[in-house]
């Protein structure tokens, strides 16, 4: 075949801000550099000066904001949340103004706060780390935040949750740019899974409300010790010495959920613990947590976090055991 002129590399500028997280700062280079010479990566700051990291060292870079003028993609890694406000920090707005229209923007974790503060996410879907969702919503009510997913691809602006999802998003972009084979090769070089769907749920902690003087706390504790049983609303209300209507209303007031939804959430949480910490089969775990069978457990776990029991176990233990997937 005759030789064809090679396309120029796609230029990626990584904008390091004060308080940057060192690990996440390195994610774009680690992923995109694994694709050979398809990308040209460089790091800059808003004034060309070194920035302090959130660790005990400072990071020096070779470029200032002028790098943003010619970038095809700009990545904003996360930074110390204590520095995040509803308006861009000094110099940040001026730096972002240098970005050409149509340039692709990517944020990792708290990097979404920077894009939102600049008004770039108003009216658009986005995500960030689940633990920061309430704070994000207070600062940026016009953003269509979805804290339950790993990343959001909204065309020219892409946002991701925590550190590992930053890798997922960069691999997603690589796959979008150059196809599955190139992305899979990069994933193998990085020794990470080649694909996790952006719509997969973040692994969010859902702590049980602390027991106290509230009317249903004792019944919640009682139910947690009996998750293996087919508990009914009438049984829960009877334990609390309330009518079913009163119990359901008070339970929702105290937990923000219906008793049935809360029970399912606790059963899924216990199943996750057993998948991580025991060698029990999926069928055995289903019985331990009160689901009718392994199929029911699989359905509820997939609805909660988007993966099967065996996929979840492999993620957290590196191995799988016999039982229904």
From TrEMBL:
Pfam family, one: HTH_18
UniProt keyword terms in alphabetical order: Transcription, Transcription regulation
Gene3D superfamilies per record: 3.40.50.880, Homeodomain-like
GO molecular function, one term: DNA-binding transcription factor activity
Segments forming domain HTH araC/xylS-type: 217-315
Recorded superkingdom: Bacteria
InterPro entries per the UniProt record, alphabetical: Class_I_gatase-like (IPR029062), DJ-1/PfpI (IPR002818), Homeodomain-like_sf (IPR009057), HTH_AraC (IPR018060), INH-QAR (IPR052158)
Record-linked SMART domains: HTH_ARAC
PANTHER family assigned: ARAC-FAMILY TRANSCRIPTIONAL REGULATOR (PTHR43130), HTH-TYPE TRANSCRIPTIONAL REGULATOR RV1931C (PTHR43130:SF3)
Protein name: AraC family transcriptional regulator
Lineage, uppermost ranks: Bacteria, Bacillati, Actinomycetota, Actinomycetes, Kitasatosporales
């Amino acid at each position: 075949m005759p030789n064809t002129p090679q396309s120029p590399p796609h230029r990626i500028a990584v904008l390091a801000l004060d308080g940057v997280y060192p690990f996440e700062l390195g994610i774009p280079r680690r992923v995109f550099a694994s694709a050979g010479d398809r990308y040209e990566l460089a790091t800059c700051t808003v004034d060309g000066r070194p920035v302090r990291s959130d660790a005990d060292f400072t990071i020096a870079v070779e470029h200032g904001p002028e790098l943003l003028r010619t970038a095809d993609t700009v990545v904003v890694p996360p930074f110390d949340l204590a520095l995040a406000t509803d308006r861009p920090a000094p110099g940040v707005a001026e730096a972002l103004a240098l970005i050409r229209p149509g340039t692709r923007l990517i944020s990792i974790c708290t990097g979404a706060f920077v894009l939102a503060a600049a008004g770039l996410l108003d009216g658009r879907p986005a995500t960030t780390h689940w633990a920061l969702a309430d704070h994000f919503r207070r600062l940026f009510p016009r953003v269509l935040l979805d804290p339950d997913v790993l990343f959001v691809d909204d065309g020219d602006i892409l946002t991701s949750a925590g550190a590992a999802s930053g890798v997922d998003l960069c691999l997603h972009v690589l796959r979008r740019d150059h196809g599955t084979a190139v992305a899979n090769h990069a994933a193998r070089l990085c020794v990470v899974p080649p694909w996790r769907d952006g719509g997969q749920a973040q692994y969010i902690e859902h702590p049980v409300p602390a027991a106290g003087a509230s009317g249903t706390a004792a019944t919640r504790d009682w139910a947690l010790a009996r998750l293996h049983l087919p508990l009914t609303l009438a049984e829960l209300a009877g334990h609390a010495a309330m009518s079913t209507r009163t119990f359901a209303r008070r339970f929702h007031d105290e937990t923000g959920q219906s008793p049935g939804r809360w029970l399912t959430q606790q059963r899924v949480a216990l199943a996750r613990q057993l998948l991580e910490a025991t060698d029990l089969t999926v069928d055995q775990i289903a019985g331990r947590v009160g689901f009718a069978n392994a199929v029911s457990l699989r359905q509820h776990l997939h609805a909660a976090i988007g993966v099967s029991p065996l996929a979840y176990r492999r993620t957290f233990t590196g191995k799988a055991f016999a039982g229904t997937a």
